[in-house]
Amino acid sequence: MPVKTIIINCREGNVNSVQKMMSMISPGTKVTDSPGDILGADKIILPGIGHFQKAMEALNRYRLIEPLNEAVLVKKKPILGICLGMQIMAGSSEEGSSAGLGWLNGEVLRFKSSSRELKIPHMGWNTVDFIKQSLLNRDIPDGSEFYFAHSFHWRSRDRSEILGETEYGTCFPSAIEKENIFGVQFHPEKSHDGGMQLLRNFATL
What we know:
The protein is an alpha/beta fold. It has six helices and 13 strands.
């Protein structure tokens, strides 16, 4: 019997904390780097902390890009990218020369600031302003706070793909959505009630 939800383990992610939170929401959630598990699961979580290029190299090393493309683009399985996991859904990043997965029409840029008050990385609690309703943000109040830890941010070339925005020196997309593809720049697994609700929403899509 296939596992309902899997968490991709490409050795560049916050896998343990995501699994701990998901075990309370969807018992039986499995951490895996198996292409067969990707194709057999109902839903996929792609976590990540670290470097864009290293994450893409890891996906290549474990031969996960082809099964991910089939699961997400062909079979239309719901997928949630978290932090770096969201960023590698873009076509490119200023963090390295590797191409991203290219599932969404965006790019990843380094935060630029001349202000001493604006510390990079962006780390800590910040609000998310949801600009549309989605099954992913169901029962989460607009302006809720989530926990962030990143030095690069998403820039969208298609505003219809933006689900939520956050202000930190600049206004950047902090949640994205296109059909079955979801991503959040923040860490729901570290964001208490709001994060748990978001993960619960994803698990029950």
